[in-house]
Specification:
mainly alpha, Arc Repressor Mutant, subunit A, 8 helices, 3 strands, 66% helix
């Protein structure tokens, strides 16, 4: 019993630490740049890969392309990025930083999403599988398997490629609740 209590306390404390660092780093990014963590992560990824297609950018930041388009829309409206059509294939949209975007990215703190992804990508597959399985079990325990994933400290949902009926209904319910609040 004592071992279970210690282990549960350790797990809960580690979850608290994760939430704490996500919150603190996201507030720092917002305070220093006026942008959200996902927006800064997107800008930094564009800097490293530009010119980059929306599809490639989405792949690099592990988000659905439709979610990335929403982020790019806001960054473009703020003057941080530009979009152009590829000369080779007019269907492909390429994204690059503007001068304003390059100036911002040079002084912006690291987005926690980037730190997390980089760490997971560098981790051996065996350890990554342990984390994946443990988090999947936690999600199942909480009964939130069909909940659409929301970007960290953002109101944007990461649209899923294969959305189940329950997830679609859940997403409609969330949108309805948000619309009623407005």
């Amino acid at each position: 019993m004592q071992d279970t209590a210690k282990q549960v306390a350790g797990i809960v404390d580690n979850i608290r630490r994760v939430f704490q660092v996500i919150n603190e780093q996201s507030q720092k990014v917002k305070r220093e740049t006026g942008l959200t963590g996902p927006q800064i992560w997107t800008i930094k990824t564009i800097r490293d890969a530009a010119p980059v297609s929306v599809k490639e950018l989405a792949s690099r930041i592990y988000l659905h392309p439709a979610t990335v388009v929403g982020i790019i829309d806001r960054l473009e409206e703020s003057g941080f990025v530009t979009r152009t059509r590829s000369r080779e294939d007019r269907r492909v949209v390429l994204v690059e930083l503007t001068l304003k975007g390059r100036q911002l990215v040079g002084k912006a703190p690291e987005a926690i999403q980037g730190v997390l992804v980089t760490g997971l990508e560098k981790m051996p597959a065996k350890k990554r599988n342990i984390i994946d399985n443990g988090l999947a079990e936690l999600v199942k325990m909480l009964g939130i398997e069909t909940m659409p994933p929301q970007l960290m400290l953002s109101h944007e949902l990461n649209l899923q490629r294969h959305v189940s009926r329950n997830a679609e209904n859940n997403e409609k319910t969330i949108k309805t609740k948000k619309a009623k609040r407005i």
